[in-house]
Amino acid sequence: MSVETFTLAATKFAPSSQLPVIVYRGAFASKDPAEIEDTFYKHGWLPQWRYGMYKKPHFHSNTHEALGVYQGSARILLGRAEEEDEGGREISVEAGDVLVLPAGTMHCSAAEYDGFTMVGAYPRGAPQWDMCLSAVDQDAGNTGATQRQIGEVPVPARDPVTGGKLMSGHWNLACPAL
Could you tell me if residue 145 is left (phi over 0), alpha (psi between -120 and 50 degrees) or otherwise beta? Predict the structure, then answer.
């Protein structure tokens, strides 16, 4: 397993987080969704769905999200809203990979292959995830209430993949713990 981390800058329409996106490459050798769900659950992340990724850019302002790919592959666009031509980052993921998206990370599917499907999970104790399509739709932009709410989302106590404390140090910032 390898780990990639990167941060995304806010744009006019897409908010951001001080926390990095974490990508675990080859986190699961088995492509059994139940194994991913069991691991997430054991580490304090509650699996809530099995599905692909929305093609419309969206973010969650009130919770972090773990996405465990168990079938197919995809190109995922992170950190850019539909209204924008620049910014963000496109990554490829495949079965066995896990994305950990901090609250406020705009994301959507750019292309999906071979029945791309994931397990979506959220930290135990987090509120029901919201569905935000643009920071502008939510408030007066990235300086408003949405960006403040994103910054107040607590860091989960455990990493969804490894079970280690505070995302194995990747999110070891001066943030409140959940």
Answer: alpha
